[in-house]
Amino acid sequence: MADTEKVASGIPGLDDLIEGGFYPQSTIVLLGSSGTGKSTFAVQFLMEGIEQGEQALYVTLEEPPEQIMREAELMGFDLRKYYEKSLFFIHLKGKNFKRMIEEQLPQLVKARADYNIPTRVVIDPMTPVIWATQDKLEQRELIGKLFYTLKELGVVLCTVEEHSRPGETIGEDVLLPIYLSDGAVHLEYYPIGGAFNRTLKILKMRGVHHGEGVYPYLFARGVGIVVRASPVAMAEETTRSHTKTFEEALKTAQALKAPARVLDRIRLMEKNWDYDYSPEEALQILFNSYGLKRSA
Ligand SMILES: Nc1ncnc2c1ncn2[C@@H]1O[C@H](COP(=O)(O)OP(=O)(O)OP(=O)(O)O)[C@@H](O)[C@H]1O
Ligand SMILES: [Mg+2]
Questions:
Q1: Ligand 1: distance of its center to the CA of 277 in Å?
Q2: Which residue in 13, 159, 253, 272 could disulfide with 229, CB within 3.0 to 4.6 Å?
């Protein structure tokens, strides 16, 4: 075991690329253009914590909590169940969130930090903070303050919208949050059809020998993003029906004494799997990420 306990990301496949997960009290920037899956990733990350008895804090600047929970539901995540029990929102609405970040937020965080419960924080999207001012120095102060204040609680994941197209260099406006964070993950979408047509790249992860490749990922409603960190060894047979594949996965998971939440994930995944291609590979990554050893 490592000397520092890592925080599991909740994204099947990802932890293999970052030596087991995020460092506690680190700040991670999730970068991607619209629709690449930033919010899906963020909710998945929070759910992983909630299901393990941690708390979750969702900092929002644009959408109210109700809308976030509604959208999460469409992704297959039931956040409502945890609302104000282990999931809390801070809605920094209004024009003057600059003052909120500087004055109110530290107080709110201080009050929570006193309880000493491991907490995951998400700021989704953080883009308005960057746009709040043209002044680079002020931007830097604002983002720095936000990170510094919130990481008192635990891992802080913030999403930043990027405007460049796949393959282009990263825009200047998003360099600052990347620079100020401990880790940065980049999501890209290549509209070429087929499985795993989206890719994930680790831009940086302080203190970690992280994977340096470009890793394909897919969406599986009910599970979220599934990353193919390495070529997945699969049984030869790929022609059987999806129903059969899921049935067998469930049976195997039960035999391996998988936690109920993992069984639920697989069932939800089955219900929502509307791709033509086989779920085999995604299931295999899911199994691996929960340490379930499946013999071929
Ligand atoms: N199960 C799924 N199957 C296929 N596509 C999906 C699935 N779940 C989500 N998506 C796609 O992912 C996109 C939404 O993902 P998400 O909201 O996480 O992206 P985002 O990066 O947060 O976007 P935005 O920048 O608009 O907030 C949608 O365009 C949707 O088509
Ligand atoms: Mg989003």
A1: 19
A2: 13
What is the 216 CA–ligand 1 centroid distance (Å)? Answer: 15
pLDDT more than 90, % of the chain: 68
CB of residue 162 inside a 6 A radius of ligand 1: no
Within this chain, do residues 193 and 267 fall inside the same structural domain, yes or no? no
172 and 64, same domain (yes or no):
yes
Question: What whole-number distance in Å separates Cα of residue 239 and Cα of residue 255?
Answer: 24
Pair (136, 283) in one structural domain: no
Q: Calculate how far, in angstroms, residue 291's C-alpha sits from the geometric centre of ligand 2.
A: 29
Ligand 1 atom closest to 187 (CA): 21
Judgement on whether residues 144 and 23 belong to the same structural domain of the protein: yes
Cβ neighbourhood burial of 257 (10 Å; 0-12, 13-18, 19+): exposed
Planar angle of CA 105, 111, 114, nearest 5 degrees? 135
Each residue of 197-245: pLDDT tens digit?
A: 899 999 999 999 999 999 999 999 989 999 998 876 665 555 679 999 9
Tell me: do 20 and 154 sit in the same domain.
yes
Using alpha carbons only, what angle is made at residue 100 by residues 99 and 104, rounded to the nearest 5 degrees?
120
- What tens digit of pLDDT does each residue of 5-45 get? 999 999 999 999 999 999 999 999 999 999 999 999 999 99
Nearest-5° angle of CA 284, CA 285, CA 287? Answer: 65
pLDDT at 61 over 90: no
Cβ of residue 37 lying under 6 Å from some atom of ligand 1: yes
Distance, CA of 181 to CA of 37 (rounded, Å): 20
State which amino acid sits at residue 89.
Answer: F
In a domain, 170, yes or no: yes
Q: How many domains does the chain have?
A: 2
pTM, two decimals, is 0.90
Ligand 1 pocket member 35 (CB < 6 A):
yes
Question: What residues make up the domain containing 59?
Answer: 15-227
- The ligand whose atoms approach the alpha carbon of 31 most closely is 1
